[in-house]
Amino acid sequence: MTEQGITRTIVHKGHWPTPDEELVAVAREWPSAEAAREAFERRGGEGLVSFTAYEGIDHDGAFTYEQWTSEDAIENLDGAPVYRLYRGNRGEGIPGALVVVSVEFEGPDEQRQRDWIDLVFTALDSEPARPEGGVSGYFHVSTDGTRVLNYAEWTSAEAHLAALAAPGANGIGTTDVWKKVQTYPGMTEGGSVKRYRPIVSAVAA
Question: How far apart are CA 82 and CA 144, in angstroms?
Fold first, then answer.
């Protein structure tokens, strides 16, 4: 890749991109896998580092995750939210499902975004054991200060559903800290949790 962006791309099937704090990300939802594939075929721009299309596992929707060299380099944004990676890690296991957790807040507040994510990590640390099947969690903050997006890899959709259904679970966890996460001041009801699998990805050569 040159300073201007991608010189060529390699197309993969079933590829899992790694979120990068040095880049900016664009996350978009689509009504169908076909729409996501069409968006993939239209991809372009010198600052585009990776573009991955996903199909819904237990719903008809789809999702695309783009990484760009800078916010100024983004092309055809069309009002989609722009994110930067704030905190994240990847553990052991092979991803089989992407869980996208979207959280919205009342009005812009960059510190609130980060404080909420830090509270999630506090909740994770309060657990006697991490949920089985969780592979990674990459927490992004939107550049307009109103949203958080967790790009979370799981071994399977079934593993994620089992964690949600575990006895005493408040979301993914069982401790009281999760109640603070779920009732955090300023959160709206506009968030969502959706499961996907990758269809195709293009990354910088």
Answer: 8
Nearest partner of 47 among 65, 27, 74, judged by Cα:
74
- pTM, 2 dp: 0.92
What's the start-to-end Cα distance of the chain, in Å? Answer: 7
pLDDT digits (tens, 9 = 90+) for 38-73: 999 999 888 999 999 999 999 999 999 999 999 999
Helix H or strand E segment including 30: strand 24-30
Mean pLDDT score, 169-184: 85
The tokens 């890749």 sit on which residue?
1
CA 204 to chain centre: 20
- State the burial class of residue 4 (Cβ atoms within 10 Å of its Cβ: 0-12, 13-18, 19+): exposed
SS (H, E, C) the chain: CECCECCCEEEECCCCCCCCCCCEEEEEEECCHHHHHHHHHCCCCCCEEEEEEEEECCCCCEEEEEEECCHHHCCCCCCCCEEEEEEEEECCCCCCEEEEEEEEECCCCHHHHHHHHHHHHHHHHCCCCCCCCEEEEEEEEECCCCEEEEEEEECCHHHHHHHHCCCCCECCECCCHHHHHHCCCCECCCCEEEEEEEEEEEEEC
At 110 the three-state DSSP class reads helix
Nearest C-alpha neighbor of 151 from the set 15, 12, 19:
19
Return the pLDDT at 195. Answer: 98
